[in-house]
Design goal:
The complex is a heterodimer of chains A (212) and B (118). Chain A is mostly helical and 212 residues long. Chain A has helices spanning 15-20, 25-33, 37-59, 61-78, 88-110, 115-118, 135-138, 141-153, 157-168, 173-180, 184-211. Chain A is built from 11 helices and no strands. Chain B has 2 domains: 3-52, no CATH class; 63-117. Chain B starts with a helix and ends with a helix. The chains are: A mainly alpha (212), B mainly alpha (118). Chain A binds chain B through residues 10-11, 37, 40-41, 44-45, 48-50, 52-53, 56-57, 61, 64-65, 68-69, 72-73, 76-77, 106, 109-110, 112, 141, 144-145, 148, 163, 167-168, 188-189, 191-192, 195-196, 198-199, 202-203, 206, 209, and chain B through 7-8, 10-12, 17, 42-43, 45-47, 49-51, 53-58, 61-63, 65-67, 69-70, 73-74, 102, 105-106, 109-110.
Chain lengths: 212, 118
């Protein structure tokens, strides 16, 4: 028996919400479309961190907060069109990917950068943290996060997206193919190219990490 | 197998997606190629660092901030057909205005830069 007011780990207050936390995504979507307003809250809380993580890896930490909200606004508006042919998470991530790429296009226009320039690889030194940084500091997790983010930001958006989906969100190649609208073999070869580009730019920091 | 082909297979090798004959060919190449062994070790180490990082999480729960938007969107969905059409055009007008503003800003900025260049 679940008490009337339960504080779940995610902080949803009522017993009904607590029970819903164990429901599958499709059950929650049905409940939401049937008028149960708490169901979307459970979905939101279930996916806010993965969506934030994806936005943060593709666009950068500063905008991830707003973009996460934009993603869920789009999801909420389009949820009645979700047919369940793919997993909800796959559908959600494809919306997140579109929101992130649109933001990057928008930013490119503001910066007067052409789309071609935006999708090109930036020089390896562009915006990367100083290599003379203190080795001990680099060994700290948040510093590694910052460096990884800076290195990712020098890659073209598609490469960032592929690394984010595979290496940070740990999605399968099939799911990434659906999200990125590519065949599995295309995902594999492009992801490999992205990883090699990332590795080459991360190499100097890897050396510092070993020393740390 | 040459180095180019070996490099192409490295991600699949590390993720154990390679078929046995390809693993054998790659292993044979690696045994005689220090450069590719080094590349593979670097890739493996880089991926280990990346995979070991915790997910970037929002500070606090975003729901509290999202709840008013949720209420607004739910209210929109309960509107009648005519109200929805009105709202659609209002959103369209706002999007066009925003696009126009970006266009004007960009053109003005470019013109100013062009004039300054003269």
């Amino acid at each position: 028996m679940i008490p009337a007011e339960v504080k779940s780990p995610e902080g949803i207050g009522t017993a009904a919400s607590y029970e819903m936390e164990f429901d599958s995504d499709s059950v929650l979507i049905r409940r939401h479309l049937g008028g149960d307003r708490r169901a979307f809250e459970v979905l939101f809380k279930r996916y806010q961190t993965p969506v934030f993580n994806l936005c943060s890896r593709i666009v950068g930490g500063e905008d991830a907060h707003d973009l996460t909200q934009d993603v869920f606004c789009n999801v909420l508006r389009a949820l009645h069109r979700f047919r369940g042919e793919a997993k909800f998470s796959t559908w959600l991530f494809s919306i997140a990917k579109n929101v992130c790429l649109n933001r990057l296009r928008h930013d490119a226009v503001i910066r007067e950068e052409s789309l071609d320039e935006m999708f090109e690889e930036k020089p390896a030194s562009d915006g990367l943290p100083d290599l003379s940084a203190d080795v001990e500091r680099i060994a700290e997790t948040h510093e590694v996060q910052r460096i990884v983010g800076s290195v990712l930001a020098t890659l073209p958006p598609e490469q960032r997206m592929l690394i984010a989906l595979r290496d940070f969100e740990q999605l399968s190649y099939e799911e990434i193919g659906r999200i990125a609208d590519m065949s599995v073999s295309n995902v594999k070869s492009r992801l490999h190219r992205a990883r090699m580009a990332f590795k080459d730019r991360f190499k100097p920091y890897l050396k510092l990490l070993r020393e740390g | 197998m040459d180095c180019r082909e070996a490099k192409e297979l490295m991600s699949d090798y590390l993720e154990q997606y390679l078929a046995e004959p390809e693993v054998a060919r790659l292993t044979e190449h690696l045994a005689g190629c220090g450069g590719c062994r080094g590349e593979l070790a670097e890739l493996e180490e880089t991926l280990r660092v990346v995979h070991g990082l915790p997910a970037e999480a929002p500070v606090g729960d975003l729901w509290d901030e999202f709840a008013p938007k949720f209420a607004e969107i739910c209210a929109e969905s309960r509107l009648g057909v005519m109200d929805r059409i009105g709202l659609y055009f209002a959103h369209l007008f706002m999007a066009i205005s925003e696009g126009w503003e970006i266009f004007v800003t960009t053109v003005t900025h470019r013109r100013l830069r062009y004039t300054a260049g003269d």
